Amino acid sequence: MSDIEKTEFRLPDGTRPGQGAGRPADAPLVPDRQPADGDVETTLRPRSLEEFIGQPKVRNQLDLVLTGARKRGVAPDHVLLSGPPGLGKTTMAMIIAQELGSSLRMTSGPALERAGDLAAMLSNLMEGDVLFIDEIHRMARPAEEMLYMAMEDFRIDVIVGKGPGATSIPLELAPFTLVAATTRSGMLTGPLRDRFGFTAQMEFYDTADLTRVVTRAARILGVTADADAAAEIASRSRGTPRIANRLLRRVRDFAEVHGDGHIDLESARAALVVFDVDSMGLDRIDRAVLDALIRGHGGGPVGLNTLAVAVGEEPATIEEVCEPYLVRAGMIARTGRGRVATVAAWRHLGLTPPEGTPGVEPGSLTG
């Protein structure tokens, strides 16, 4: 086989595309030297309960459930993990399978549109396997009703045929453990929720735990970061490890392009300014909402649709993406008449709140 002709392209400064400043022109490009961003999430996931940072109550409770099941030699009770996105529900499901030494089968609620979809997956489970269903509240009702019997009795009834000639064939299942995740536990039906033997509510992280998450991720990625820089990234991560890891990767990019790759406090702050993340963790859309609410409508109350039109976004984006954190941060109050900016929102924009703003004591702004 003849050799393939290699053609090199160089920029005017002598570097190859993607080489970056300070890289020798003859240095080989190694595409697999660092994992791609799509693989980073998997690389950063902890492998055991001991490695998992934060959620101490959930970890301790889950450790008791798993240890007790292992001692009895049975499959543990079904587990429901509830909480906002990005707190580690999928990671916890992987850890459960790892701790049990079992195989993990993964699917999602929207993928289970028919009872037959669920039956096919359940019938392929081996004894002791862990089945993970993400966003279980979005599962179709026929599949959910089939899941009731599978969770309690480890069997399902498969309907063959249609009309008067249809017959029900019972199918025994191997004992398994269902681990389900939901971001909206209130949307689960009572019969489904009651069939879980252990329910865990994942909480937002504090800055100390998120700093440990950032430090651990930096070590895995081979990045050196000062303690105060890690704390700065953590403080702007909205209490969510997924956001903390994402911001760390962007700060890493900034440090490598504009410096020697080391992340100090100055480079972390400069990078976060470039990526529109302010000191409270608010991004461009969050600040646009506050600006429209305060400068455009005097602090409210403003209806959701009016607010969405003012910032050029869909109402669902405002309600599901922006509002949860703004409400939790105490910057927006939801009232029967609409959204109202609090004193914290006014001061975050550098403005003086008027009398009557939520959080302002009467007479505190006079004299």
Please give a structural write-up.
This protein is α/β, with parallel strands linked by helices and 367 residues long. It has 3 domains: 42-201, Rossmann fold (3-Layer(aba) Sandwich), CATH 3.40.50.300; 207-274, Helicase, Ruva Protein, domain 3; 284-348, Winged helix-like DNA-binding domain superfamily/Winged helix DNA-binding domain (Arc Repressor Mutant, subunit A, Orthogonal Bundle). Helix content is 43%, strand content 12%. The strands form 3 sheets. A 5-stranded parallel β-sheet has the order 2-3-6-1-7, covered by helices on one side. A two-stranded antiparallel sheet has the order 4-5. A two-stranded antiparallel sheet has the order 8-9. Strand 4 (155-160) and strand 5 form a beta hairpin. The longest helix is centred in the C-terminal third of the chain and has 18 residues, at 241-258. The termini are far apart. Residues 1-13, 17-33 and 360-367 have low confidence and may be disordered.
